[in-house]
Amino acid sequence: MRNILEIDGVKAVVSFDPELNLLRGEFLGLAGGADFYAASVSALKAEGKKSLKVFLDVCREKGIAPYRSFSGRFNVRLKPETHEAAVLAAAAADKSLNDLVEDAIAKVAQVSEAPKLQPVTRPARKAPDVARWVMDVAGTRGDAAFELVDIADFKLPLLDEPVPPSMGQYSKPHTKAWAAKIEQYDGFVFVTPEYNHGTSGALKNAIDYLYREWNNKAAGFVSYGTTASGARAVEHLRLVMGELQVADVRAQVALSLFDDFEGFTTFQPRPQHEERLTTMLDQVVAWSRALQQLRVAA
Ligand SMILES: Cc1cc2nc3c(=O)[nH]c(=O)nc-3n(C[C@H](O)[C@H](O)[C@H](O)COP(=O)(O)O)c2cc1C
Question: Which protein residue's CA is at the shortest distance from atom 14 of ligand 1?
Answer without folding.
Answer: 195
